[in-house]
Amino acid sequence: MTTVKILGSGCANCRKLEAVAREAAAGAGMAAEFVKVTDMKEITAYDLLATPGLVIDDKLVSSGRIPTQAEIRQWLSA
Question: Which residues, including other chains, have CB under 8 Å from residue 57's CB and lie 6 or more apart?
């Protein structure tokens, strides 16, 4: 199963990113485990420049923005 992590403090953009990622996974027909990471120590371990961050299977794929569903589906299928 794919693990999707949302990195951030829980702000509005973090919640929006989680919603878009969940919709992208559902649209792709993929089962994914979603994890919210709010601990700054864990977040900085990913060398994140800005939040929100998106990590798919322990690989940082996006930071500081909310990617489109199409982009997320592409990352999920890679």
Answer: 2, 3
Nearby residues of 65 by Cβ (< 8 Å), 6 or more positions away: 52
Residue 50: count other Cβ atoms within 10 Å of its Cβ: 11
Q: What is the pLDDT of residues 10-45, one digit of tens each?
A: 899 999 999 999 999 999 999 999 999 999 999 999
What angle is formed at CA 29 by the lines to CA 14 and CA 21, rounded to 5 degrees?
Answer: 10
Catalytic residue positions? 11, 14
On the question of a cis peptide bond just before residue 52, with omega within 30 degrees of 0, the verdict is: yes
Q: How many CB atoms lie within 10 A of CB 19?
A: 12
Tell me if residue 59 falls in helix, strand or coil: strand
Compute the average pLDDT of residues 51-67: 96
